[in-house]
Amino acid sequence: MRIAQMNWMQVEAQAKRDDRCVLPLGSVEQHAYLSLATDAILSEKVAQDAAEPLDIPVFPVLAYGMTPGFAAYPGTVSLRLSTYIAVVEDMLEGFYRSGFRRIVLVNGHGGNSPAMTFCTEWMGVRTDASVRMHNWWAGPRFQAAVKALDPAASHASWMENFPWTRLEGVALPNAAKPPFNAALYQAASPARKREILGDGNFHGRYQRTDEEMLSLWQIGVEETRAAMVEDWP
């Protein structure tokens, strides 16, 4: 159920039936040979696929996030922490006014995770509301399946290479990229980070078979669906 396919009257009625809603969180940042919008594409799709049989409305993805480390890569757009938190607060208030009390943030970008600290503060004010952030790629079932397939998987590697994040006409290297010096990378400026990473893949192969990726995707969808259903306070 997509908010883009609903009107306000339908939303009002829906919130009275079920006070859950979903907001996907993404980012626009370098992903080597994949789409710059990979995190937004994946979080929105996994949220929609997971919510569909539950009839829970999914709002359009908040596509921009916090990714200052990739600022030296053209096309990367990073919001300041203060800006991002302000946007999240305004959106939570909008959901609350609409009648939603259980809000799932399906996050596709690790840099957005600090927003959950603010959400905890917000729940201290809106005491009848509950917010959950689900980092869909970091779920234990998904990560176990990734490691069983190929433990060399990270940002912009095969792990994020799905049919819907590839770019038409862009050929990927037929190789496995070695790991970089993580300690050096962490202490580096954005320009130096780009020098260390090169094309942007952290490490590992660039692509695996569609059969393998679609099997992984199903696990991610199931785990995301469970986050929408289980263990609400």
Would you identify the CATH H-level superfamily? Answer: Creatininase
Low-confidence stretches: none
CATH topology: Rossmann fold
Give the class-level CATH name. Answer: Alpha Beta
Instruction: Name the average pLDDT.
Output: 97
- Percent of residues in helical segments? 40-55%
What CATH architecture do you see? 3-Layer(aba) Sandwich
Structural classification: mainly alpha
First-residue to last-residue Cα separation? 24 Å
Largest sheet geometry: 3 strands, parallel
Form type: globular
Instruction: Work out the radius of gyration.
Output: 18 Å
InterPro entries: Creatininase-like_sf, Creatininase/forma_Hydrolase
Keywords: Hydrolase, Metal-binding, Zinc
Protein name: Creatininase
GO molecular function, one term: hydrolase activity, acting on carbon-nitrogen (but not peptide) bonds, in linear amides
Give a brief outline of the structure.
Belongs to the creatininase superfamily. The chain is mostly helical. The protein contains eight helices and five strands; from the N terminus they run H-E-H-H-E-H-E-H-E-H-H-E-H.
What does this structure look like?
The protein has eight helices and five strands; from the N terminus they run αβααβαβαβααβα. With 233 residues, it is mostly helical. The chain has one domain (3-229): Creatininase (Rossmann fold, 3-Layer(aba) Sandwich), CATH 3.40.50.10310. The strands form two sheets. A three-stranded parallel β-sheet has the order 1-2-3, with helices on both faces. A two-stranded antiparallel sheet has the order 4-5. The model has no long low-confidence stretch (mean pLDDT 97).
